[in-house]
Amino acid sequence: MMLGKMAASVAEHGEDAFRKLFRFYKRRNPPPDFSQVIDFSKKVENAQVFATELDHNSFSEEDACRAGLWPVKDWRAFGLHGYPGFIFISNPFLPGSQRYWVKQCLKTYPQKPNVCNLDMHMSPAETENIWEKSIDSIRKKGKREPRTLLEKLRWVTLGYHYNWDTKTYSADHHTPFPVDLHSLSQRVASACGFPGFLAEAGILNYYRSDSSLGIHVDESELDHTWPLLSFSFGQTAVFLLGGTKRQDPPTAMFMRSGDIMVMSGSSRLLYHAVPCILPAPASDPLPSCLDQRQEKDPLSDGLVHDLSEEEWEVCSKYLLTSRVNMTVRQVLGPGQTFSSTLPRVGGVDESSGCHEVSGQNPKKRKSESGYDHDS
After folding, report:
1. What are the backbone angles phi and psi of residue 34, rounded to the nearest 5°?
2. Which of 247, 242, 184, 202 lies closest to 346 in space, CA to CA?
3. 69's torsion region: left (phi>0), alpha (psi -120 to 50) or beta?
4. What count of Cα atoms within 13 Å lies in the side-chain half-sphere of residue 350?
């Protein structure tokens, strides 16, 4: 009870209220009290939360099934008063289908020609076939075993590749965007009122149990009405959504495996962060939704396919201490080209220095925003 009051007190308006709450949830000793964190997986009794109506006719139930999703009419979607443009969708994935997207993040999307953090200090030959070079060690993993390449992954970029130094995209740094992720993103965006959304760029973040994402703002495209989509898989994280100023106290919520967040309009310009990944309970080391297998055979023309036992063995062991997040966005607005100067797409605050998960940039040492050296 006392810790709950502390969380409320540090969230009051004042000098850098966001950083205070970020540090409160990031601390390990004593561990933070999570009683003030909104949990959308349960019945939400919070005056700030309201149910959001989605477009049930945006695509058919068959199309939903092809992407491994429940029909839109069965999705549980919420908004937050004071955060226009923000939508939280509580795990709309069919049983077993999350496994496919986890496998894509670990096995398929890190493959060349996509770009990852390991490319910053390793040769292309060394970062080829990250999955194949890692799976044997992960299967027989011991506590003292050195980290595999897969466990050293911090980020992967897709489509228009984000430049971490200039905080921009360019026409010269582009590879084909994955068709399956584009299709999934289009469906989700359409259900949220954004038909015609084009998935042109993706950033995959790989969180270990001690990772965090520093306080930052996504100062993205010229047209902020196009949404940013965020998909989470694996262990649960705390997400903080603040205001336009660091003095605005943020709202804390759990992001569980399968949850989707949609940020559009003014919510694209709000401070946000991930201060911590919750330790998995010993009795239930994997989220129960990941223990589920597909209840029926995938559609022959569907995006989602079942995994082999060997593939899931590696994925499940990785997820025991990890979380994977995919963010997808449209880079160019209607009629826009790279001939005009684009604004920064991954804006950051003055203290964090980069929009990356803790440990992604080998040149960064740990700061109060959660960035540390990639050791």
Report:
1. -100, 15
2. 202
3. beta
4. 3
As given in the structure block, the two tokens for residue 224 are 């902020």
Q: What does the pLDDT profile of the chain (375 residues) look like in tens digits?
A: 444 555 555 555 555 899 999 999 999 889 999 999 999 999 888 899 999 999 999 999 999 999 999 999 999 999 999 999 999 999 999 999 999 999 999 999 999 999 999 999 999 999 999 999 999 999 887 666 788 999 999 999 999 998 888 878 888 899 999 999 999 999 999 999 999 999 999 999 999 999 999 998 877 554 567 899 999 999 999 999 999 998 999 999 999 999 999 999 888 889 999 999 998 888 889 999 998 887 666 666 788 988 999 999 999 999 999 999 999 999 888 888 876 544 444 443 333 333 455 544 444 433 333 333 332
Q: Which residue has the tokens 């205001």?
A: 243
- Token pair recorded at residue 237: 């994280």
Q: Which residues of 189-225 are buried (b: 16+ CB within 10 A; e: fewer)?
A: bbbbbbeebbbbbbbbbbbbeebbbbbbbbbbbeebe
Nearest 5°: CA angle at 212, between 211 and 215? 165
d(CA 158, CA 32) in angstroms, rounded, equals 35
Contact of 184 with 109, CB cutoff 8 Å: no
Task: Record the tokens describing residue 149, joined without a space.
Answer: 């390449």
If you search the block for the tokens 């999350």, which residue do you land on? Answer: 98
- Distance, C-alpha 163 to centroid of its chain: 18
Q: Treating both helix axes as pointing N-terminal to C-terminal, what angle do 309-319 and 130-139 enclose, rounded to 10 degrees? A: 80
Report the predicted TM-score, pTM, of the whole model to 2 decimal places. 0.88
Scan for tokens 């069965």, then name that residue.
Answer: 74
Strands (E), the chain: 49-51, 76-80, 86-90, 115-116, 155-159, 201-208, 213-216, 228-234, 237-241, 251-255, 260-263, 272-277, 322-329
Phi and psi at residue 201, to the nearest 5°: -145, 145
Tokens of 354: 């980069």
Distance from chain centroid for Cα 264: 15
Both tokens of 357, joined, read 């998960």
Helices (H), the chain: 2-10, 17-26, 61-66, 98-103, 130-139, 149-152, 179-191, 288-291, 309-319
